[in-house]
Specification:
The chain contains four helices and six strands. It is α+β, with helices and mostly antiparallel strands. It has a single domain (3-124), classed as Nuclear Transport Factor 2, Chain: A (Roll), CATH 3.10.450. The protein is globular and about 40 Å long. The N and C termini lie far apart (37 Å).
């Protein structure tokens, strides 16, 4: 296992645990101050924005805090992790509430110090939980 594979494995474990504890402060420590995060959900949360990208931790924190307010029972279940060089792809289920889930693919790009410098979220359809 190379350095970035080990980093990605640790990142995913810490990231999922922090999210499932709704510990946004810990999640934010895993990102660079110059983070570039893209998601189609950004314009849903911030309808006044023209861009689906945030470029600093303050905006990222505000986006995530609104997400937790909208989905107070949000919970992630990891499915698969793929690493290549300094990139990590995490596929997981986002359990939104007791009735709905969605498939998510999150792409993380790490900088040399191990912090995420670029990340993107891709979302499948919302589905009922069986």
């Amino acid at each position: 296992m190379d350095r970035f594979e080990a980093l990605a494995k640790d990142h995913v474990e810490k990231w999922v645990k922090a999210w499932n504890n709704h510990d946004i402060e810990t999640v934010l420590t895993m990102y660079s101050d110059e983070i570039e995060f893209s998601s189609p959900k950004i314009r849903v949360v911030f309808p006044e924005r023209k861009s689906s990208t945030v470029t600093n931790k303050k905006e990222l924190e505000e986006y995530w805090m609104r997400a937790l307010k909208n989905f107070p029972k949000l919970h992630f279940i990891p499915k698969q992790t793929i690493t290549q060089g300094n990139l990590c792809i995490l596929e997981y289920y986002a359990i939104l509430d007791e009735r709905h889930k969605t498939s998510v693919i999150e792409k993380f790009e790490f900088q040399e110090d191990g912090l995420v410098k670029k990340s993107s979220g891709f979302y499948g359809a919302e589905e009922p939980i069986n």
